[in-house]
Amino acid sequence: MTDRTETLLPNWLRRCAENRPDHLAVSCGSVRLSFAELDFQASRLARQLASIGVQEGSRVALLAANGLEFVACVHALTSLGAILVPLNIRLSREELRWQLSDIQAAFLLSDQRYAEVAAALHMALPGIQPGLLLSEAGEVRLQDAASLDVPLRTLIDLTATQAIIYTSGTTGQPKGVIITYGMQWWNALGSALNLGHRPDDCWLACMPLFHIGGLSILMRSVIYTISISLHERFDAVAVNRAIQEDNVSIISVVAVMLQRMLSALDASQNEQGYPATLRCVLLGGGPAPRPLLEDCARRGIPVVQTYGLTESCSQAVTLAPADALRKLGSAGRPLLPVQIRIMQDGRIAAANEAGVIYLKGPSITPGYANRPEATAKVMHEDWLSTGDMGYLDEDGYLYVLDRRTDLIISGGENVYPAEVESVLLAHPAVEEAGVCGREDSQWGQIPIAFVRPRHGCKLHVEELQVHAAQHLARYKQPRAIYLVEELPRNSSGKLLRRELPHLLKQLTLAQQGKS
Amino acid sequence: MTDRTETLLPNWLRRCAENRPDHLAVSCGSVRLSFAELDFQASRLARQLASIGVQEGSRVALLAANGLEFVACVHALTSLGAILVPLNIRLSREELRWQLSDIQAAFLLSDQRYAEVAAALHMALPGIQPGLLLSEAGEVRLQDAASLDVPLRTLIDLTATQAIIYTSGTTGQPKGVIITYGMQWWNALGSALNLGHRPDDCWLACMPLFHIGGLSILMRSVIYTISISLHERFDAVAVNRAIQEDNVSIISVVAVMLQRMLSALDASQNEQGYPATLRCVLLGGGPAPRPLLEDCARRGIPVVQTYGLTESCSQAVTLAPADALRKLGSAGRPLLPVQIRIMQDGRIAAANEAGVIYLKGPSITPGYANRPEATAKVMHEDWLSTGDMGYLDEDGYLYVLDRRTDLIISGGENVYPAEVESVLLAHPAVEEAGVCGREDSQWGQIPIAFVRPRHGCKLHVEELQVHAAQHLARYKQPRAIYLVEELPRNSSGKLLRRELPHLLKQLTLAQQGKS
């Protein structure tokens, strides 16, 4: 009996090109690339990237909107064994600069739209090699690049790192989550076993590819050999049109998007709704409002709710449409490769007992890049502490009570109060700051802030908003800032963020009392 | 970053019982068991088996026809971490006895139909603990057994051995192929990625469960959470009825079966043929006759040809219906986890150059039980030499030229000439023996033998046939034995089995000359 490591698989995109060369790989705007064409583009781009020095293990940051540049680049990096560090285009320049230097990126690639931001970042970090990705009529190339005839990888090692994706976590300190090829593989397989897999599926990607929810669609496409309908940005009318005309069978969305799609459907007075070809609406990014779920049930839209995080390579737990009514409010059951347990007071909680959600399995991250302490803090004997609270009912269905205690989910983007607070606290006139979410009909939640000015300092709310805008991505900036005399804290002085909404009520009442 | 072995998955059947408790797991005759019921039966049987001493690592031989006893037993052994050794019910008692002692089986379980054979084997091998599996009205139990409340395994270790299945190979010496859970898992996933996976699939199993082709269907059922329509034996009319009435979507067959199904369809004057619910006819067990493929194409039957062997956990290479005409005669492309190469003169062959087919990947066996030399002979740096000849065309499609040089495939069963020859040579009056296949309209091929009597001995063909019947399974026994004065051999004395058919022609001509 031989001893083996079972971790090598044939290069996914290459295999698609061999098995279904003429099958549609990706449509984006008016461009349609077959697998053979995409493989050709990715291989050529890989050789161009090699000519500027990208090689095995290189950390290559990518600042780009959804587009063919992004898709070709992801696969090109796989062919070179380089590591993708996708950057959130919504971040402020300061946040981007911090991430680039934190991850010690050797390269910063951008598309044309973000060329200016990339140039500014390059000014600040001259040690990072820049590169501009161009896309014209379905041809992706690296500007001014030669081509180096390096051998491209025909095998994928499942233990190798595919990407490092930043997430902030409870501490407000962003950390790079290591995403291995194995995580992508096991997640894709777990998802296929759950949702079914049809060789003629077409997955619509309108979520950002720099988040795990979008990036994992790219990986599934080449693992399943199926088509992607890629949208440069979310436009409800365009998405509805694609569903109705392009045989889209699966779409990943967050609640805000789905709501807008339904509104657009109503506005278009389309009586028929979605065709039967749409077999799965994968709804992630936080709890879904019940009226939305009921509306979808009425319209016969097959919504599959999911719970997942970057650390679990997107979906980890899903609720099948058949269970939607029977288990209303539940996030469902774990995908096959995923084990789940609830921990309370250092022991495994009983059924229906709340505690912290732990996940384990080959689709869960091995940890954070360059952060052994942060990794040790969340990994306990291969179990990942998500920080989220929840319970399992007697049938093993997960109910998520609270995302990471005080996580704010705004339009599907995670906003970590501690991160926003640390920016506010950096302002010289701020003594204390507390951030929480406020319900919002459009975004689900929006961040708001409570600030206690430093004694003797004069603090204008507008000035503080300008300060926040300089340091934070737009979706993280507090939509309202309230000046208060005291923040709710427990006896040991810890900020009680859950009490902040009450503070808002008091302020409103006080306001009403005044008027 | 933590170091991990990514090999633990939740117990597959248990998970099915949790996720889809009421979904049909298996129908067999008039009995229908849901996943919750099957899990209950398997768990109870596991505790009964534990009471007679079955435990982790126990090698448990099973002599049973297709039935609920077989299904429950397979899953019960998984719950105990014991190893299944399924016995071919068509083997002679001598062959069975040899296998049992070769594998050092600790237990021999049988169903009622094979109780007598099992009792005789127990007489010969008193050290093996017997056990009789009974099935009444969907209840499976171990006769006269108590129940031991042992903990049942909630996790499956993919590196653990699930089964050991005997195959003869070119040498005529049967060897036990190690089948791990990982092989089953990767094979099931590779198959799902290739054929698609639908949660409402129903897979019809009419192939013997003691072969990898049948056993792997049982595993896929619990990996995919889909139903099985289990047939105790192949009956073309019953299989056709199941396809027409029971929503069967996938069926695994060999060419002989498919031919009979089509004949039965014609005889029943069913104009409609098979319903659209039948989405895949997986055709394995040797090359398919072209007229059969053309007939299926005319009828719109979606035939997926496959090439595989026990060592590759069934399917390794398949040809999609879309490629059936474009690549006529090809076995197709490897499943995703499988790598393939053709070796010739110690180097990788060029496109269209013939050589020995090698396979590699996590669905390929780590080797043969207790046979380090035999393992070393076929495993070369994790590549398995199949012994089969073939070539890859310029698109990477496999064409199998010859199954293991001289393998005879009779009704889907492999007959190894060397094994039959060694039995014939054991007869005192036989000096030389050569066995080959003859084309047969019903079985595809049947074995025939050429024998040179020992000098001065009188040899009756009938006597030799009785001798063969005593030592060989029926399907291996030569249907005709010809006495000859010389066998074709090369200069170094090696038997040229490929020349044997010419000998038959000469004999026939000589016969015609005489008459």
Characterization of this structure:
2 copies of one chain form a homodimer. In chain A, 31% of the residues lie in helices and 29% in strands. Among the domains of chain A are: 21-155, Rossmann fold, CATH 3.40.50.980; 408-514, ANL, C-terminal domain (GMP Synthetase, Chain A, domain 3). In chain A, a hairpin with a 7-residue loop joins strand 10 and strand 11 (175-180). Chain A has 515 residues and is α/β, with parallel strands linked by helices. In chain A, strands 3-2-13-12-14-15-16-17-18 form a 9-stranded mixed sheet, with helices on both faces. In chain A, strands 19, 20, 21, 22, 23 and 24 form a 6-stranded antiparallel sheet that branches. A 5-stranded mixed sheet of chain A has the order 5-4-6-7-8. The mean pLDDT of chain A is 90. Chain A contains 14 helices and 29 strands. The interface between A and B is large, with 39 and 40 residues. Chains A, B: InterPro entries: AMP-bd_C (IPR025110), AMP-bd_C_sf (IPR045851), AMP-binding_CS (IPR020845), AMP-dep_synth/lig_dom (IPR000873), ANL_N_sf (IPR042099), ATP-dep_AMP-bd_enzyme (IPR050237), MenE (IPR010192). Chains A, B: Pfam families: AMP-binding, AMP-binding_C. Chains A, B: Keywords: ATP-binding, Ligase, Menaquinone biosynthesis, Nucleotide-binding.
